[in-house]
Amino acid sequence: MSVLIDTAGLRARDRPVVLLDVRWALGDDRGRERYLAGHLPGAVFVDLETELADPPSAGRGRHPLPSLQRLQASARRWGIRQNDAVVVYDASGGLAAARAWWLLRWGGLSDVRLLDGGLDAWVRAGGPVEAGDVVPEPGDVTLTGGGMPVLTIDEAAALPAAGGILLDARAGARYRGEVEPVDPRAGHVPGAVSAPTAKNLAEDGTFRPAGDLGRRFADLGVEPGSTVGVYCGSGVTAAHEIAALAVAGIDAALWPGSWSQWSADPALPVATGPAPVSAGA
Q1: Between these two residues, 16 and 197, which has the higher pLDDT value?
Q2: Which residue segment(s) compose the domain that 49 sits in?
Q3: Is 223 exposed, middle or buried (0-12, 13-18, 19+ CB in 10 A)?
Q4: Among 22, 232, 238, 242, which one carries the catalytic annotation?
Q5: Overall number of domains in the chain
Q6: What is the chain's Cα-based Rg?
Q7: Is residue 130 a part of any domain in this protein?
Q8: How far apart are CA 151 and CA 222, in angstroms?
Q9: Which residues contact 31 (CB under 8 A, 6 or more apart)?
């Protein structure tokens, strides 16, 4: 699976691509404002909250997957036509853009890439930016679904005991239960392994090389061929972890409800501390 494209590769492409700007951060609603101030030429703004997720609920989490029909309508608004190539980016190392990358792959598109390093890498390389809004001609893409594996809450919970690996992509302090800034309870799913998403990136915001990522995940017990599931707070940065795993040659499934779904049910057990603990321990 080709996941990344660097700035040189993007500028050298001999056919047009659909560029999507997915600037978003938890608790920060200024993504569109920043997009309007400056973005890659021709890039269309994507609103993560309204276009890459259904409304939040206790039963499905803070960012449930949109229906395939809703995602297709958004993709057409973004100007995606059948057989188009798509490149997504943000200004946070791909932490938000990976949600669009994963969803479009899930929807059935094959030629979708993350711009490695995002807007910052583009500007460092001397790439031009433009201000204002871009409203493309509507596309005609048809999404078929089934392009990426998904876990239910029960499947995710059962993965560690079944011999699989369940990775928790949140910051270590949230995994350990030391802080919880947004969800109902602090801690992690019993048996899950801490794998903070930020460690997928080099200091300049680009993805670490494939070999480095492979060694990182091997240290966490993940090898090519392992059965791997990933969750985070609400299924956004977990997509970034899946992208990093793919760079390392490892397939993984996303649990969309993630910790926001699990922690909302007081009947479900919560583990704390730095090490995975099984539910029966």
Answers
A1: 197
A2: 4-124
A3: middle
A4: 232
A5: 2
A6: 18
A7: no
A8: 18
A9: 22, 23, 24, 25, 45, 47, 48, 96
Question: What spatial distance separates the first Cα and last Cα of the chain, rounded to whole Å?
Answer: 38
Task: Say yes or no: 101 and 207 in one domain.
Answer: no
In terms of Cβ atoms closer than 10 Å to its own Cβ (0-12, 13-18, 19+), residue 136 is middle
Beta bridge partners of 262: none
Query: How confident is residue 1, by pLDDT bands cut at 50, 70 and 90?
Result: low
Residue 278 pLDDT: 56
Please check whether residue 199 lies inside any domain of the structure.
Answer: yes
Q: Are residues 114 and 16 in the same domain?
A: yes
Whether 207 is catalytic: no
Task: For residue range 25-81, list pLDDT tens digits in order.
Answer: 877 789 999 999 999 999 999 999 999 999 999 899 999 999 999 999 999 999 999
Rounded CA separation 276/166 (Å): 10
Q: Are 135 and 106 in contact (CB under 8 A)?
A: no
CATH at residue 210: 3.40.250.10
pLDDT tens, 247-263?
999 999 999 999 999 99
CA distances from 10 to 115, 141, 228, 275 (A): 8, 22, 31, 41
Enter the pTM of the model: 0.95
Average pLDDT over the chain, rounded to whole?
A: 95
Judge whether 142 lies within some domain. no
Residue 145 located in a structural domain: no
